[in-house]
């Protein structure tokens, strides 16, 4: 008797705490804790957009990927509400198809990729973090940063009598890149110019650089860059892969202020002793 009562109490207590538990499955950007290591990604709490262009004459597709891994996206004002991303989206793609002959355009696809959606619309964000330094994956060996996998998106397409439902997800790799100081930047610049001169005649076009103009790579406004990698079917998911080079993914970034302060004091003490 007693034990079954105890069981009932435990069960109802667990139910009471269920919303709390659910909370642990959202993202707290200011304090991301992955395997006991804390990261502060709060500076990246902004809405970013990348876009890719696909030409298939006479139409051109401009697919815009809106991203804010910290909170749901704002509604777009230049778009019909029904064509916009559903509420709760954190990563979402909208394809604007333009006909270059008659200069008309339409929103052809709105794909919710990741977010907190109602059951009928998709699923839950269910964020999964991986600390690259301690990851067992071979591909992560020697890398420093974090990988974030976000879920929830579902895209339903109907072709004639066939309906295809495809689960979506977004994977962002935050790669540690310490902001180069002025000196290093200048040195890199010089090296690049020298490199360019040397390779002038064997230059067959650097595809990497095209990204800057096409919208596939942007400055994040905090010394880092966000780059589109791919958006394609990977097993049962259509997966958007992004790479974010940022100092906030460095393992020492959260306590760097303290260490620079102590460095300063060290210097000061030394100065006084002299
Ligand atoms: C693609 O769409 C975005 C807005 O979503 C716009 O800022 C960008 O200029 C467009 N790119 C081209 C090449 O039309
Ligand atoms: C779609 O692209 C066309 C051509 O660039 C542009 O005029 C139109 O405003 C775009 N529509 C939206 C909703 O972004």
TrEMBL record:
Protein family per UniProt: Belongs to the ATG27 family.
Domain of life the protein comes from: Eukaryota
Subcellular location: Cytoplasmic vesicle membrane; Golgi apparatus membrane; Mitochondrion membrane; Preautophagosomal structure membrane
GO cellular component: cytoplasmic vesicle membrane; Golgi membrane; mitochondrial membrane; phagophore assembly site membrane
Alphabetic keyword roster: Autophagy, Cytoplasmic vesicle, Disulfide bond, Golgi apparatus, Membrane, Mitochondrion, Protein transport, Signal, Transmembrane, Transmembrane helix, Transport
UniProt region (Disordered), positions on chain: 193-225
Keyword Transport: yes
One example of a Gene Ontology biological process annotation: protein transport
Residues in the signal sequence: 1-24
Domain MRH: 27-252
Membrane topology annotation: Single-pass type I membrane protein; Single-pass membrane protein
Protein name: Autophagy-related protein 27
Composition skew (Acidic residues), residue ranges: 198-213
Segments forming a coiled coil: none
Keyword set includes Magnesium: no
Organism: Ramalina farinacea
């Amino acid at each position: 008797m007693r034990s079954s009562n105890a069981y009932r109490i435990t069960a109802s207590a667990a139910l009471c705490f269920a919303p709390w538990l659910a909370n642990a499955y959202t993202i707290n950007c200011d304090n991301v804790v992955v395997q006991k290591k804390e990261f502060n990604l709060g500076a990246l709490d902004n809405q970013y957009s990348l876009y890719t262009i696909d030409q298939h004459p006479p139409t051109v597709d401009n697919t815009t990927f809106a991203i804010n891994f910290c909170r749901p996206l704002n509604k777009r004002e230049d778009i019909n509400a029904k064509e916009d991303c559903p509420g709760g989206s954190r990563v979402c793609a909208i394809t604007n198809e333009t006909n270059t002959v008659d200069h008309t355009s339409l929103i052809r696809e709105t794909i919710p990729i990741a977010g907190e959606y109602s059951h009928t619309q998709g699923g839950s964000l269910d964020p999964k973090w991986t600390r690259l330094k301690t990851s067992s994956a071979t591909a992560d060996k020697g890398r420093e940063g974090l990988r974030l996998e976000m879920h929830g998106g579902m895209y339903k397409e109907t072709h004639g009598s066939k309906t295809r439902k495809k689960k979506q997800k977004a994977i962002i790799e935050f790669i540690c890149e310490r902001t180069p100081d002025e000196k290093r930047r200048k040195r890199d610049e010089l090296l690049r110019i020298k490199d360019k001169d040397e390779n002038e005649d064997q230059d067959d076009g650097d595809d990497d650089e095209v990204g800057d103009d096409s919208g596939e790579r942007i400055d994040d406004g905090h010394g880092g860059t966000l780059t589109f990698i791919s958006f394609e079917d990977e097993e049962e998911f259509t997966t958007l892969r992004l790479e974010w080079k940022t100092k906030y993914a460095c393992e020492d970034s959260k306590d760097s202020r303290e260490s620079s302060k102590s460095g300063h004091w060290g210097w000061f003490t030394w100065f006084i002793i002299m």
